[in-house]
Design brief:
The chain is an alpha/beta fold. The chain is built from seven helices and nine strands. A hairpin with a 2-residue loop joins strand 2 (29-30) and strand 3 (33-34). The protein binds guanosine-5'-triphosphate. Transfers a GMP moiety from GTP to Mo-molybdopterin (Mo-MPT) cofactor (Moco or molybdenum cofactor) to form Mo-molybdopterin guanine dinucleotide (Mo-MGD) cofactor.
Length: 196
């Protein structure tokens, strides 16, 4: 059984959005609402504690009514920097991360990523996987990994896959590959809007 008290979720909206021309991806409109709000609405069905990681337009994100955390390490070091920021500010033993650009992620994400920890107390993190391919931005990690992330980023590394390989982890398979469809360009956003 999932213990919601143990987990804080972070919506990662701190990227540069280069493939969207440098716009703030989380604030782009999809089905009449900002992308990050879609993520929030899905998380609210799963967990009670949620924050947003953003590095610009902070007022707009604060308008969602959640705590907003900024990267502590500068220079846009990738999604791990956002997970690091959330871990730094949270007192929850587990952090669940989701990106802001996957509007249909599974509604049983938190439950399924939490379950393996109950069977294996040594486990440090779980990562979503779909059709055998990992989706590493969808991660549930124990908060004691904060210093490990910090050391890794300070060494100039940034790839999540390389980081988690050093830790006891489990991949958790999800059935519906469409749920992990992410949007990288404004054209992809418009196409997804038409399809759905
Ligand atoms: N906090 C933080 N989050 C990031 C950073 N880079 C990417 N992300 C987040 O990680 C997720 C996946 O991001 P990407 O699509 O790889 O990067 P992006 O910045 O959104 O877009 P591109 O610049 O086009 O790659 C998104 O939720 C981003 O907001 C970063 O430097 N800091």
């Amino acid at each position: 059984m999932i213990d919601k008290e143990q987990i804080e979720a972070v919506i990662l909206a701190g990227g540069m959005g280069r493939r969207m021309g440098g716009v703030d991806k989380g604030l782009q409109t999809f089905k009449n609402a900002p992308l990050a709000l879609h993520a929030l609405l899905r998380l609210q069905q799963q967990l009670d504690y949620i924050c947003i990681n953003a590095n610009r337009n902070l007022g707009a994100y604060e308008g969602f009514g959640l705590p907003v955390v900024c990267d502590r390490l500068t220079d846009y070091q990738g999604p791990l920097a956002g997970i690091h920021a959330a871990m730094s500010e949270s007192s929850a033993p587990f952090i669940l991360s989701v990106p802001c650009d996957v509007p249909f992620f599974p509604l049983n994400l938190a439950e399924k990523l939490y379950a393996p920890f109950e069977d294996d107390p040594q486990l440090e993190l779980t990562i979503a996987s779909s059709q055998g391919k990992s989706q590493p931005v969808f991660m549930m990690a124990k908060s004691h990994l904060l210093m490990s992330i910090e050391d890794f980023l300070k060494r100039g590394e940034r790839k999540i896959d390389k980081w988690y390989a050093n830790h006891r982890h489990a991949l958790v398979e999800f059935d519906d590959p469409a749920a992990f469809h992410n949007v990288n360009t404004l054209q992809e956003l418009a196409e997804l809007e038409k399809q759905s």
